[in-house]
Amino acid sequence: MRSPVMTAFSVDLSSKGHSLVTENGRHPEPVRDSLQQEALSHIDSLYRTAVRMTRNPVDAEDLVQETYLRAFRSIDRFTPGTNLRAWLFKIMTNAFINEYRKRTRQPRNTSLDDVEEYYVYSHLIDSGFQPESRGPEEEVLAGITDDNVVVALESLSDEFRQVVLLADVEGFAYREIADILDIPIGTVMSRLHRARRRLQRMLVGSYVDVRHAGEASHG
Amino acid sequence: MGDCRETLDKLYEYLDRELSDEELVEVQQHLDDCPPCRDRFHFEQNVLRAVRRCCRDVSAPPSLVEKVRKICSQ
Hints:
The structure holds 2 protein chains of 2 kinds. Chain A is mainly α. In chain A, about 65% of the residues lie in helices and about 0% in strands. Chain B is about 80% helix and about 0% strand. Classes of the chains: A mainly alpha, B mainly alpha. Chains A and B meet through helix 1, helix 2, helix 3, helix 7 and helix 8 of A and helix 4 and helix 5 of B.
C-alpha cells in the first residue's frame, strides 16, 4: 500500500493548523515563504500535465500561471503538513474545467463508452504473440514511440486522460486522485482501468492489426 | 494460490501498489507459480512505463518559471 494520504486540503484551520495561523487568518511569513517555495518545486509536474490536458504548450503556460495565481491567493486556506502537490493539482483541474474549457469552447468529449473495449494482450496472444520468447514483446514495446503515446493520450476524453496522467505519469495514489478530481475512489479505479485498456489498444493494437493483415494477405 | 481470473482482476491495483499486504502476497504467489500471468503482468507494466517515460520528459520553460516566481513575489 502507498502511504496513507492526508485528504484535507483544507479549509479547516481550527485544529492542527491553528497555531500556524496569525490573528488575521494569514500564515506567518516564514510559513508562507516555505509553502510558496515548495509550490514552485512542483512546476514541472504541473506543466507537463497541463501540456497533455490542453494539448498545447501556450495554453498550458496560461493554465499553470492561473493555477499559481489561484494557489498563492488562497495559500492561507491550505493546511501546512497536508498534501501541497495534490492541492495544486486540484486547483489546476478546477481551473482547467471552469476556465480553460469555457474560454476555448473546445468540444468536450464526454462519451466514455463509445469504443469497444477489450484486453489487447489477449488479442496479441491470439495473433501469435509469444511472450516467453521475449523477442516479440520487445518488438511490440519498441514500436511504442513517444509520438505514438502523445497521439494516443490526446485522443482520450478529458476524463480518461486526467486519470492516466495523475496515476501513470505523476504517480498519485487512488485516494489522492479521488480528492483531486472530487470523484469516488471506485470511479477512479474503473475510469483508470478503461482508460488504460483504450490507450493500450491504440498503442499496441496496430501491432495486432498488422499481424492480422499480414496473415490475411498470405492466407 | 488464487486463480488466474482473481489475479487478473487485481492486475492494476497490484501494479499501482494499492493492494493490502495480504492481497499482495496472494498475487505474488500466483505470479511466482503461473508463467502466463507473469508474462501478462510484465507486459502491462511495460506499456505503463512507456507512457510514463514519454510524458515525464517535459519540463516547464524557463520563461514560465520566471513568470511564476514573479507571481509568487507579488
